Amino acid sequence: MRDTTPPAGQTEYFRFDLPYYLLLLLLGPAVGYAVYRARAYRIQSLEERRDELALEQDKADLQELDEEGL
Questions:
Q1: Cα(33)–Cα(39) distance, rounded to whole angstroms?
Q2: How far apart are CA 49 and CA 70, in angstroms?
Q3: Is the full-model pTM beyond 0.85?
Q4: Residue range 29-48, pLDDT digits in tens
Q5: For residues 6 and 12, is the Cβ–Cβ distance under 8 A?
Q6: Cβ–Cβ under 8 Å, residues 7 and 14
Q7: Disulfide: which of 1, 4, 6, 41 matches 10 by Cβ 3.0-4.6 Å?
Q8: How far is CA 47 from CA 21, 42, 53, in A?
């Protein structure tokens, strides 16, 4: 903590110094969780899109079978 003089007219004031390692310690898990949720959301949306494409392909296959008369 630095030794500084208070502003004119004040006898003392409160100074809160948060060490950088403590800030990183607190921010690390928050950033990690945000990255985890973003990746989980991306994977989920890719799986949903894959399922939609598979459904469209199945519909196209059934339509081909109907056109062939089977």
A1: 10
A2: 30
A3: no
A4: 999 999 999 999 999 999 99
A5: yes
A6: no
A7: 6
A8: 39, 9, 10
